[in-house]
Amino acid sequence: MNEDALNMSIRKFLKKVGITSQREIEAAIRNSIGNDKLNNKSSFTISVQLHAPDLGLNHKIDGKIELE
Questions:
Q1: Under 8 Å CB-to-CB from 5, ≥6 apart: which residues?
Q2: Which of 2, 22, 56, 59 suits a disulfide with 50, CB 3.0-4.6 Å?
Q3: Contacts by 24-32 with C-beta closer than 8 Å and gap 24+?
Q4: Total structural domains in the chain?
Q5: CA-to-CA distance for 52 and 29, rounded, in angstroms?
Q6: Do the Cβ atoms of 61 and 14 come closer than 8 Å?
Q7: CB contact set of 57 (below 8 Å; sequence gap of 6+)
């Protein structure tokens, strides 16, 4: 296993995940605000599921996003 190649591949994947996730979350927030779904809320919970069947990996990450 080439450690440098592995590291770069993981970083590239995580960058893609981060950028795509931010865009999707921001779009969903704007849509929810437009549809009055986030009235009087200053935060909301969020989670992401990390799943790699070939590795037996299934990990949930929970969080909270603050709007104010």
A1: none
A2: 59
A3: 25/65, 29/67
A4: 1
A5: 28
A6: no
A7: 50, 51
Distance CA 47, CA 63 (A): 6
Helix (H, G, I), strand (E, B) or coil at 58: strand
Q: Quick check: 25 and 48 in contact, CB under 8 A?
A: no
Query: pTM to 2 decimals?
Result: 0.86
The pLDDT tens digits of the residues spanning 21-57 come to: 999 999 999 999 989 888 888 999 999 999 999 999 9
Domain that holds residue 13: 3-66
Q: Which residues contact 38 (CB under 8 A, 6 or more apart)?
A: 29, 32, 44, 67
